[in-house]
Amino acid sequence: MWIKICGLSTQAAVDMAVASGATHIGFVFAESKRQVTPEYAKYLAKNVPKTVKKVGLFVDEDLAVVQEIVAKVGLDMVQLHGQESADYAAQVSVPVIKAFGIKDGKIPDAIADFKAHTILLDAPPAQFAGGSGQAFDWDKVDLTALDGYRFFVAGGLNPENVGQAIAIFKPTGVDVSSGVESEGVKDLEKIKKFILKVRRQ
Ligand SMILES: O=C(O)c1ccccc1N[C@@H]1O[C@H](COP(=O)(O)O)[C@@H](O)[C@H]1O
C-alpha cells in the first residue's frame, strides 16, 4: 500500500515520515498555508532515500515552471490538483498523480482521460484547491467506476478513519495532510500513528 504524507515543511516531519515507512512525501508549490519554495524543498529532500518518492504538488501552474521545479528539487512525481488537461499531464517529465474533487459521490467521467496516470480522490476545493481536511461522501461512490485505475484516496483522512477508507476503497494508496497536523503544524506522533495504522491493515 502506498502511503503519502503531504504538505511537509520541516526536516523533523520529513524524517519522521521516512523513518515510519511513508512511500511518498509531498511538497506543496501551489498557493497554500503549506507552500514551500523550490530551494527549501530541495534542502528538505536532500537526504530522502531513493525508495521514497518525492512528489511536488501544483495547481494550474505553467508547465515550464513545473518542469523547472521538478529538475531543481529532483522530484520523482508531480501531483496536479487543478483543472489540468490530460494533454498537459502527458507533457510532464515524471509520473503524474491527477487529483479529482468528488462531489455527491460522483467519480468524474474525466478520469478516463488519465488512465495512464495515478488518480487521487479528494473532497471538492474549499479555501485552496485541496488540503482542507474534509472528506467526500465515501458511501455514495460507485466503486466499480474505479476498476482498472491506480488511485489514492485522500481528503480528511487521519489515523482514526484511514482503516475504514482502506476497507471501503481498497485503494492503491492513501494520502494525508491535515489529519497528521495539530494546530496547523505537522505532528510527528500523528504521522507515525497514521503510517502504523496503514501498515497494520
Ligand atoms: O495541502 C495543501 O495545502 C493543498 C493545497 C492545494 C491543493 C492540495 C493540497 N493538499 C492535498 O489535498 C489532499 C487532501 O488533504 P487533507 O488530508 O484533506 O488535508 C491531499 O492530497 C493533499 O496532498
Task: List the topology elements.
Layout: E1 2-5, H1 11-20, E2 24-28, H2 38-45, E3 53-58, H3 63-73, E4 77-80, H4 86-91, E5 96-101, E6 118-122, E7 150-153, H5 162-169, E8 173-176, E9 181-182, E10 185-186, H6 188-199
Parallel strand pairs: 1-2, 1-8, 2-3, 3-4, 4-5, 5-6, 6-7, 7-8
Antiparallel strand pairs: 9-10
Helix pairs in contact: 1-6
The site of the ligand O=C(O)c1ccccc1N[C@@H]1O[C@H](COP(=O)(O)O)[C@@H](O)[C@H]1O has 27 residues, from β2, β6 and β8.
Can you walk through the features of this model?
The chain has 201 residues and is an alpha/beta fold. It has one domain: TIM Barrel (Alpha-Beta Barrel), CATH 3.20.20.70. The protein is 27% helix and 21% strand. The protein has helices at residues 11-20, 38-45, 63-73, 86-91, 162-169, 188-199, and strands spanning 2-5, 24-28, 53-58, 77-80, 96-101, 118-122, 150-153, 173-176, 181-182, 185-186. α1 runs parallel beside α6 (188-199). It starts with a strand and ends with a helix. 39% of the residues are buried. Bound molecules: the ligand O=C(O)c1ccccc1N[C@@H]1O[C@H](COP(=O)(O)O)[C@@H](O)[C@H]1O. The site of the ligand O=C(O)c1ccccc1N[C@@H]1O[C@H](COP(=O)(O)O)[C@@H](O)[C@H]1O has 27 residues, from β2, β6 and β8.
